[in-house]
Amino acid sequence: MSDEWIIDVLTDLKAYAVKNGLNVTADQLDDARLIAMTEIASASRQETENAREYEKPVGRPCLYVAGGELA
């Protein structure tokens, strides 16, 4: 499951806070939303970098020919 659901929850909470005159709370929720977006993007970037590291060749491959002898 994607972590982006939390952005929707924070957005809804901020809208509630604004509607009910909780201005400081709304500002804090906006900050929390920005922090969550930053963390989600950072985690996604790290996962991409980890996947790229995994895909890199480890070294020179050993080739075999029919009969099981080294080429």
Verbal overview:
- This protein is rod-shaped.
- The protein has helices at residues 5-19, 23-55.
- The protein is mostly helical and 71 residues long.
- α1 (5-19) packs antiparallel against α2.
- The mean pLDDT is 81.
- The longest helix is centred in the middle third of the chain and has 33 residues, at 23-55.
- 68% of the residues lie in helices and 0% in strands.
- The chain has one domain (5-55).
**Mean of pLDDT:** 81
Strand content: under 5%
Straight-line N-to-C gap: 47 Å
Q: Please tally the β strands and state the result.
A: 0
> Rounded to an integer, what's the Rg over CA atoms?
24 Å
Secondary-structure element order, N to C? HH
Total helical elements:
2
Count of structural domains: 1
Describe the sheet with the most strands: none
Can you give the helix content as a percent range? Answer: 55-70%
What assembly state would you assign to the polypeptide chains in this entry?
single chain
The helix/strand class is mainly alpha
Which spans of ≥5 residues are poorly predicted at pLDDT below 50? none
User: Rough shape?
Assistant: rod-shaped
